[in-house]
Amino acid sequence: MLNAIQSVYMMGLNACGVWAGYHSESKAKEYKHVCKRACQRVSCISQKFVFKVDAYLQDSPFTNAGTGSNLNLSGEIECDASIMDGKSLNYGAVGALSGIKNPVLVARRLLSETQKGKLSAGRIPPCFLVGKGAEQWAISHGIPACPTEKMTTKFSLSGYKRNKRKMELAEQVETKRKRQSCEHENNSACLDTVGAVVVDREGNVAAAVSSGGLAMKHPGRVGQAAHYGCGCWAENARDISLYSTAVSTSGSGEHLIRTMLARECSTAMQAENAHQALLEAMQNKFISSPFLAGEDCVLGGVIVLRCCTCGEAQRSEDIQALLVEFLWSHTTESMCVGYMSAQDSKARTHISRLPPGAVAGQSLAIEGGVCRLGTMSD
């Protein structure tokens, strides 16, 4: 899809909406509109883009992150989020966090605090906080609290009541039901983790991800969105022969945690052919992973960005080019993505779907393309 802008020089590229699950045709415009608006919220592309876009996506009632998140067994909202800076390799994350409207802002603050160095008495600042401790830390650092009822939507509440009735009925008839994670109803409500990846004009990459978690999850459960190497990964190239990479994931958290899919995809991106590398990573490291041998329906999706200096690119005294490849892949029935450059007036959006006849959780879709970014030299 990016081939149409392959010859255009831009000053930075961002992508958002790791939104793997099921997206009905009737609501396609709403899903794409949310992605488009999220990308357009930030005009200056930098590390700040990923958490600002992620925060906007959290505010949308169409996503399972922040406002509108799935309710746990106790009827409460607990969110996970993380962010990673490819230049410093610093990381910040929160898990099972309640009472905060935009969890990714807490993750971003944790990251920034680690960059300040040690605390009093030589203590090492935390990079990952959970539960009440994360909420208290956020409030003490100026992030306002937000009651759960203000983050609950009619859709999430009705889903909770519907799922609770199903559980009660199953217990009454003593029926053991296999978790219905492959059905449309649960896909649309449970797997809509959101995220973003970005590269700036200097070639620095960053990634962020946030989620409300699975519906009816046990209180205290922490999904992939908070786990290191599972929800997101960003790493600047340390050598001219390597690629800078940024990855954000979505899907069934337990599947993504047990395979560390974000880091696996980042590692795979050092191969020459990015499309083939991502295809093999999704097939061998995810669908056919030995760590998921007992699963017959492996659900997940990724957006992947990699870049390097173009050796063959046209050059002038003040412009140098970065070759950027942006790909996405998923085993869920669909995934909504959006992307734009700093010079674009509006974002491009797309709902990717599995090929006809493909089985969700057992097959995959992969799309994407290449563009060039102009970078100002010193």
UniProtKB/TrEMBL annotation:
Alphabetized Gene3D superfamilies for the sequence = (Glycosyl)asparaginase (3.60.20.30)
Q: Which InterPro entries does its entry note?
A: Ntn_hydrolases_N, Peptidase_T2, Taspase1
Swiss-Prot/TrEMBL keywords: Hydrolase, Protease, Zymogen
- Give the positions of the site Cleavage: D192, T193
- What residues form the catalytic site here? T193 (nucleophile)
Enumerate the Pfam families for this protein.
Asparaginase_2
Keyword Protease part of the UniProt annotation: yes
Q: Name one GO molecular function term.
A: threonine-type endopeptidase activity
Report if keyword Hydrolase is assigned. yes
For this record, an example GO cellular component is:
cytosol
One of the protein's GO biological processes: protein maturation
- Give the family from UniProt: Belongs to the Ntn-hydrolase family.
Q: Which PANTHER family match?
A: L-ASPARAGINASE, THREONINE ASPARTASE 1
Q: What does the subunit section of this Swiss-Prot or TrEMBL entry state?
A: Intramolecular proteolysis generates 2 subunits, alpha and beta, which reassemble through a non-covalent association to form the fully active enzyme.
Q: What is this protein called?
A: Threonine aspartase 1
Q: Which organism is it from?
A: Sinocyclocheilus anshuiensis
- Name of the encoding gene: LOC107662811
